[in-house]
Amino acid sequence: MKRVLVTGAAGFVGRHAVAALTARGFEVHAIGRTAPAGVHAFHAADLLDPALRRAAVRAAGASHLLHLAWITTPGRYWQAPDNLDWTAASLDLVRTFRESGGTRAVVAGTCAEYDWTEIARLPSPGSAGEDRDGPAVSATRESPDERAAPMEPSEEKRPRRQSSSGPTANGAVAEIRDGRLAEAAPCRPATLYGAAKDGLRRVLQAYAAEAGLSLGWGRLFYLYGPGETPGRLVGDAARALLQGARLATSEGRQRRDFLHIADAGGAFAALLDSAVEGPVNIGSGEAVPVRELLQTVGALTGRTDLIDFGARPLSPTEPACIEADIRRLAEEVGFAPRYGLARGLAETVADGRAALSTAASAP
How far is CA 106 from each of CA 29, 260, 286, 291, 351, rounded to the nearest angstrom? Predict the structure, then answer.
C-alpha cells in the first residue's frame, strides 16, 4: 500500500483529498495541529516548528507527500508576512520528506501566481473583480487557493476540451487576453501570497531536479462547496440570504472559474497518484459570471430580492475573466470534474440551511 503524508488534512480541500486518496488505496497519514477524520494515522505537530515538523515527517515514513497547509485567513493572507514563514517551512518540509526516503510530492499552488495584467478588463470602471477576497482558497490553513442562473438542470455540461497540441503563439496570447490561463502563461504575482507560492514552486522545482524527486504543483482556482467558513463568496452569500439579510455586491459581470471542493480534493488525489510533474491547473475549465452565480444562490434561497448588485464598487484593474485551461488535468492526469454548478450550489445552500437550523435549535 502506498503511504501518503498530508498537510492541511483537516482543512477545506484536505478533507476531500483524504477521502479521495483513501479511495485510491493510499494509507493516509496526516500532520498538523488538528486531527482529521478518516486517516490511518495522525502525527501532531505545528508545521511552523522545525523540530516537530521534521520529527513528524520522519515518523510517517511516507512515499508520497500532499502539501496543502498554508495561511489563508480571508482578508489577511494576500499580504500577510506569515507567507514568508510558510515558504520557509514548506521548503524544509519537502527537503525532509525527500531525505527521509519520499519519492513523489504534490504541493498546492494558486491561480494568483499568474500575471493578470494582460487579461482584458471589463468595459466600464468599477464593475470588475471578486466580491470577497479574490481567488478564494480555504479559510483554514490550507492553500489552494476559491455562475449561472438559471443553470442547466443536469450535470452533463463539461469543461471545454481543446486539441492537446495546444494553441499557437498568437493563440496563446489571445487566450491570456480572454482570461483563459494555461500552465505556460507568464507568472507575475501581484500579491505577497502569490509571490510566495510562485517563488516556492521555482525553488522546489530546481531542488526536485537535483534530488531526484517527482514533483507536481496543483494551481487552484476559485473554490466553493459545503463547509465553507466565513469570508468566502458562495457561503457568505448563502448565509446572508438564508437569514434574510441584504447582500451588497458588485455588478457581478466578472467571470470566474469555480470548482466544487470535492472535485478539488479529487483532482489533487489524482495528480498525486500520477507521474505528472510541474504545474497543473485545478479548476472547472469554464468561467461563469459572478452575477449569475449569485442569482442562482438567490433562487435557491428564495431571496433574490435581497441581492444589491452594484452596491460595492470594485477596482477597475480587476480582470474581466479568470478561467483555468484544464487540458493537462484532463489529458495527462486523467481527471474530470464530476460536479456541475447547479448540483454544487444546491448542495452548498442546503448545507448552509442545515447549519443555521442546527444553530437555531442549540440550547
Answer: 15, 20, 24, 34, 30
Enumerate domains of the chain plus CATH numbers: 3-361 (3.40.50.720)
258 - beta bridge partners? 222
Q: Categorize the per-residue pLDDT at 317 as very low, low, confident or very high, splitting at 50, 70 and 90.
A: confident
Q: What angle is formed at CA 5 by the lines to CA 327 and CA 214, rounded to 5 degrees? A: 45
CA-based Rg of the chain, rounded to a whole angstrom?
20
* Residue of 179, 314, 315, 298 whose CA lies nearest to 245: 298
Residue from 212, 226, 202, 194 nearest 343 by CA: 226
- Which secondary structure element, helix H or strand E, spans residue 309, and what is its range? strand 307-309
Q: What is the pLDDT of residue 17?
A: 98
**Contact by Cβ (8 Å): 236, 74:** no
Return all residues near 164 (Cβ < 8 A) that are at least 6 apart.
327, 331
d(CA 136, CA 134): 6
Cα separation values, 360 from 244, 298, 347, 353, Å? 14, 21, 20, 11
| Digit-coded pLDDT (tens) for 133-186 | 343 333 233 333 332 222 222 233 333 333 344 455 677 889 999 999 999 999
Here the cell at position 40 is: 490511518
